[in-house]
DNA sequence: GTGTGATAGTTGAGATATCAACTATCTTTC
DNA sequence: GAAAGATAGTTGATATCTCAACTATCACAC
């Protein structure tokens, strides 16, 4: 069953699930991005970055921690922060204790932008995700995506290195 | 509960699920993309495009249908196909019956590239998704993402236009 | 058959992302 | 305390994506 040339192909049910995952994902992020573009002054990525900063003490976090939390490459974060700094949403300052380090801090303007965008963002997430699912489905989705995330991270981190 | 200034914020459980969804997704696609980059000659996007073509009669499909199926903008598909055409993976030809239309056809070289990439792709999808979940979880994920995709599409299509 | 609005696809400019190379600092080891 | 390697972050060239404008064709009304 489902094995040709030593390759374990996906069966029909697995195929269907995988396709739904791909397409559903693409449509969801397209719609959420469109909602941000249409109503809000922050893109989804900028918004997420500011949310993460808003949860840090003094609204400040090291670039590397920020990159890890947002699942962004260092380089991409550097460019993104440079642009956002240009708009006055965040500012950079040297990290204390490690002269290589750079802290990223949300400015008051950034905070104001976050507060202004939050209602529209939450409405969109509700409309496109939370309200679309039964409560137990949302819980299941979270649990399942958690497992997927853990597996992906361990592959990226290079855990399970061959002996 | 959870309502301030008329905004329905997410409760803790909803927040957790939403975060898991965001982060799990980002990690998953990062890992799958990395697997393609490392082992295969086709990016995930190129591979998906060729898969879709491979399922069409004569390995040929109209640009617009291809764009819809892959959830890509027309413009993005044009650029992608131009690049892939440059590599000899697909070719363009006029659609018959509608002189505006353009067909995209997978070449033999494209088919060979697809066949060569398929085992590695499927292995990665197994490792990062299918094998990570229980069968019922995979089924649930497919079902849930299907619902999300439908909701997102109806928003994008502009259904439910206000009276 | 002419005008009007929709649809198919492309184009090019500007925005964003990726990748490899680079500087600077830190850490470890001897 | 000097050398070697790891870590933090940036840089710039290139690749890719996005957005609005554009051409061409089609469909439909009149």
Automatic annotation (TrEMBL), chains A, B:
Limits of the HTH marR-type domain: 1-150
Gene3D superfamilies tied to this protein: Winged helix-like DNA-binding domain superfamily/Winged helix DNA-binding domain
PANTHER family assigned to the protein according to its UniProt record, in alphabetical order: MARR FAMILY REGULATORY PROTEIN, TRANSCRIPTIONAL REGULATOR, MARR FAMILY
Protein's UniProt name: Winged helix-turn-helix transcriptional regulator
Source organism (scientific name): Myceligenerans salitolerans
Organismal lineage: Bacteria, Bacillati, Actinomycetota, Actinomycetes, Micrococcales
